[in-house]
């Protein structure tokens, strides 16, 4: 499968490996986290899932070493309803973006544990796909191009600036998706 990730980012991930991969996926997840947390907050029975997501995002930022429990976390995450196929598929706005947020986290954990550039590229690809969909649903939006810019920053920039930019981008994404998911939005 061809990835949407910019060639320069892919090349850097392949050459640098290790900490660069872990930082890149941590930033991707940080930008997607508000979609999962915000869209699943208040859903009965999902408290432990929310706690796991939030704690994992925080732990991924310790990019100097792989998470010791990354493979265990993947197994738990794969039990989330978002990653369990159903007969009906996904058609609801909230479910769609919560799915992408869970998928990005899954790929991030795989990359964190394996150090694989291919797993990291799958993480970035999922984030870019979600943002491309969001651009199609929000008139005049440029979420995909912003994700591309932030992915480049993830492999070449200052960690503090990257974290702040990722947090802000995540908030903007959540506001956009929440407006689409709001009753009467027509979506």
What does this structure look like?
By secondary structure, the chain is mainly α. The protein has one domain (7-181): YP_001051499.1 fold like. Helix content is 72%, strand content 0%. It is built from eight helices and no strands. It has helices at residues 7-16, 18-40, 47-60, 70-77, 93-114, 117-137, 143-156, 159-181. Helix 5 runs antiparallel to helix 6. The protein is globular. It starts with 6 loop residues before the first helix and ends in a 6-residue tail after the last helix. The mean pLDDT is 93.
Features:
8 helices, globular, mainly alpha, 187 residues
Helix percent reads over 70%
**Individual helix count:** 8
CATH C-level label? Mainly Alpha
Biggest beta-sheet profile: none
- CATH topology call: YP_001051499.1 fold like
| CATH homology-level superfamily | YP_001051499.1 domain like
Q: In angstroms, what separates the terminal alpha carbons?
A: 30 Å
How many distinct folded domains? Answer: 1
Contiguous low-pLDDT stretches (5 residues minimum) are none
Rg, Cα atoms, Å: 15 Å
Note the beta-strand portion: under 5%
How would you state the average pLDDT, rounded? 93
